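Protein 1 of 2
SEQ + STRUCT:
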Amino acid sequence: MKKLSNEQAIKVRKRIKDKKPDFKRQESWRYKRVKENWRRARGKDSKMRKSVKGWPKSPNVGYRGPKAVRGFHPSGYIDILVRNLDDVSKIDHETQAIRISHTVGAKKRGEIFTMATEKGIHVLNPKEERGIEEPIGSS
């Protein structure tokens, strides 16, 4: 099999993901008390576990994406969690994008965001930063 570039592999992954069914928990459509969140069918006589025709599909290895882009963000960047300014300085802006940790406060979040934009780093969760234009505490 020929090696795919990252862009091609992301397209293949999207195509596979579009065909993938929404996996539902067994009997969730029958009982209100059973949520749709996926749980593996484990019963002795379970029709889903036995893959009986007419019953919903279960997740298996055939729905997996290409190894080259496994774990990548849909934008094509590698997702890196950032907690401080030192983490931002280690980022490669061409292949990696940052996600600012939820534990970071507003002041440091603003500093991280400005440093990232100066270096041309893509921020995956920028919606929190839109309100922050200047560092908090500077009166």
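Protein 2 of 2
SEQ + STRUCT:
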Amino acid sequence: MSKVLVVEDAPSEMELLSHYLQQSGYLVISAMSAKDALNKAIELKPDIVVTDVIMPGMSGFTLCRSLRRHPETENVPIIICTSKNQEIDRFWGLRQGANVYMTKPFTQDDLIRAIKSVEG
């Protein structure tokens, strides 16, 4: 069973993402901030990270860069899941190290397809 670290500051979005993933057989680790996510990623070694972009403190873009720079997390696939839907946002997210950039709203199928595309 793959472990997915979900980084989302909005409780309703966190609940939705967690529900979709658990229903599809994934173990979910949750983090309400990018800073918390960075610590959990290093400590708990998730198989995949799904992160929002717009969060207080550290953004999802900064989280991507930080995960890519740390030896424990440099190869963990990252999926950005955000409402930022401009082409420049997508470009920037992928430049920061994300493997997949998807925009809200999304379906359970969209999320699971993205997860499966990065699973080893």
